[in-house]
Amino acid sequence: MSRQYIIKRTSHFHRRKFPWRGVLWCALALTMLGSAAYMLFFTNLFAVSRIAIEGNKKTETADIRAVLDEYMGSKIFTRIPRNNFFLVSVRELHERLMARFPELAAVSVQKKFPNHLAVRVGERQFAGIWCGSTPACFLMDTAGVLYGEAPSSSGVLVMLLRGTGVGSMGGTVASVPVVANLAHMHAMLRTQFNLAAAEFYLANI
Fold first, then answer.
1. pLDDT of residue 156
2. Would you say residue 121 has pLDDT above 90?
3. Does 114 sit behind a cis peptide bond, omega within 30 degrees of 0 on the bond before it?
4. Gap between the Cα atoms of 203 and 65, Å rounded
5. How far apart are CA 175 and CA 60, in angstroms?
6. Which of 95, 89, 81 has the alpha carbon at shortest distance from 41?
7. What is the spatial distance between Cα 188 and Cα 59, in angstroms, rounded to a whole number?
8. What is d(CA 103, CA 116) in angstroms, rounded to the nearest whole number?
9. Is the pLDDT of residue 181 over 80?
10. How does 128-145 read in b/e, with b if 16+ C-beta sit within 10 Å?
11. DSSP track, 47-100
12. Cβ 105 vs Cβ 48: under 8 Å
């Protein structure tokens, strides 16, 4: 008598379950990141609200503040406010202030967490007036840098230098030792010898 064997085939295929748990965790993480980004960039939590300006004597504080307000009043991609503590660029503010105010010799911009901006400036020290080969004359500081247009009449008490070159705003026309020596000579002629030097002519400048 033969035996019959029944072979049952079992399938190893299992329906894969959708990873709901992973999707929920990703959605939660994205929500948290979005909330953090909104708090960082779109609320006033880190908006610069305190600005201190120091060191200026002749340059108006309101004029310096106007440059800062113009920068921080702009937006990135027309959406994100520029006045956010993390988005304010001290390098760009430095460049803007130096370009706007030639009479400044130095500018320091510092950010202090969470919403404080400190600006300290150093103004140029007037040394005399420099006139080149063009009719225009410029104010010159102790480093020989031209930083402003000079008035048509300055008087004999102001040192006047004349050179053969063409001066331009921000350009250097004399070295520090040359300016210092000429200033000393100008003052000595006036105080010790009661002589007023009308002008100094420097052929090599």
1. 67
2. yes
3. yes
4. 42
5. 29
6. 81
7. 31
8. 25
9. yes
10. bbbbbeeeebbbbbbbbb
11. B--EEEEES-SSS-HHHHHHHHHHHHTSEETTTEETTBTTT--HHHHHHHHHHH
12. no
* Torsion region of 130: left, alpha or beta (phi above 0 gives left; psi -120 to 50 gives alpha): beta
Give one word for 94, left, alpha or beta, with left for phi > 0 and alpha for psi -120 to 50. alpha
The three-point CA angle 170-172-174 to 5° equals: 150
Report percent pLDDT > 70 for the chain: 75
CB–CB of 78/84 below 8 Å? no
User: Can you read off the two tokens belonging to residue 184?
Assistant: 């000393």
Extract the tokens encoding 190: 């006036």
**What is the β-pairing status of strands 116-123 and 104-112?**
antiparallel
- How far, in Å, CA of 40 to CA of 42, rounded? 6
Q: What is the distance between the alpha carbons of residues 114 and 122, in angstroms, rounded to a whole number?
A: 26
User: Closest Cα to residue 202, out of 172, 153, 165, 177?
Assistant: 165
Q: What is the pLDDT of residue 103?
A: 94
The arithmetic mean of pLDDT across residues 160-168, rounded, is: 83
Identify any residues that bridge with 200 across adjacent strands, giving them in sequence order: 161
